[in-house]
Amino acid sequence: MKRIIIIILCLMALEGYSQDIHTYFEKVRTNEAELTAFIAQMPKGGDLHHHYSGSVYAETYISYVVSQDYWIHRKTLEVLSQKPDGDRGWTRFSSLEKDGLLQSYKEKLFRKWSVKDYNPSDYPSDKLFFESFGHFNIASRSVQDAGLAELKKRAQAEHVSYIETMFTGIDSKSVTLPAKEQLNERLRRMSSRRETGRLYLLMDSLYGVVMSGGGKSCAEVFNDSLQARHLRLKIDDSTFTMRYMNYVTRVMEPADVFKAMVIAFESASISPLVAGVNIVAPEDHETSMKDYLLHMQMFNYCHTLYPSVKISLHAGELTIGLVKPEELTWHIGEAVHTGKAMRIGHGTAVAYEHNSYGLLSYMREQRIAVEINLSSNEFILKVKDDAHPLMLYRNFGVPVVIATDDAGILRSSLTRQFVLLARRYPELSYREIRSFVYNSIDYSFISDPALKQLIRARLDAGFHAFESTIIPAAQKAETGNY
Ligand SMILES: [Zn+2]
Predict the structure, then answer these.
(1) What is the pTM for the complete model shown?
(2) What are the tens digits of pLDDT across the range 391-414?
(3) Ligand 1 centroid vs 315 CA: distance in angstroms?
(4) What is the C-alpha to C-alpha distance for residues 349 and 355, in angstroms, rounded to an integer?
């Protein structure tokens, strides 16, 4: 026994932390405020799963539309830059201010553009969440500089030194596809019959149309503007690095998804700032469900064309009651096997997957990480505590990373996600939670190995500083010797 304790202590010393911090963590984890103070100061590595527009807080968006003196509809709370003809319900923010109503309308917008003061009996949580993106779109498109600066500032304040943000602005309107309706039908038919050979031949011809129709230049224009913005805002510095994930929207028609996906892969293949490609929007949407397999086949096709481009996929962001039970059995499996996902976003439905143990073992063997978003899953899917499969992933040895998803809409933070983690899953020791932090760098899509090593070294230094100062500071407080 003594020998085992000595070995554990030696391992801790090797990993750079002492028994003291483990003991102190176990003490503070039962008190939420004490735990929050501890976690807030702890380095948290990277946030690998979050959406740019959903991560910016509503304060930023509201202050923008007020500063522009946009029009707001008094009943629907829709905000527009120009007043539409006819309807008399529209008013300018400046008029609301004159009438002493600005504050109350701002509060209404907070409740429409985020979960602030959310009352479950008022509106379904998943609808409020996904609809909010469309509501604040008028501001999120215009405040991208301020929005990205906000994400960086928040990350640094939270001791987060790397983020991979889902952010894209590829404009592919100029690339047209012929006979789209017929094309959509053919793509769907070949996919559902699993006529893979014919399907890939069709994709080959579509790929040619997209690329010869200007797809490559769409990717280049986007990459140039992204790089210019990234440099102008001085996003990267000696303490912080940001990379971007391109994404496609799964609720669009198949030919449009394919076009967007091909250009997203092209962009990621040539820009060192674009870390990979993802797919977003509600997974339980009728079109998302109908085309799920087809989307995975499209990712498979793009993967063969662009094997160096990293893929992370929202998959299994579902739960019982949201869709038919048989639809819960295959999305994550298809994402890793067909879609070639190197990370899975959410994976909340994994317990319902056909051969879930086999799938989890495969994810462990292939080192496919799962991006866990506790607040998001609780709000949108009502999945939390032991209904959440976090421990299932962990027990099967699947690499776990902790992420925020949409800290702005959810009015959360990465600190809050780690607090929930430590409170809800007492089986996880400090050592293991610390390893989740390291996973957020190890399973990041940073392409430059030297940069990855540098960011990991930053994390080492951060933990060293944190662990060597937090205990003496706590001891001083405990003895009253401030
Ligand atoms: Zn997400």
Answers:
(1) 0.94
(2) 999 999 999 999 999 999 999 999
(3) 10
(4) 12
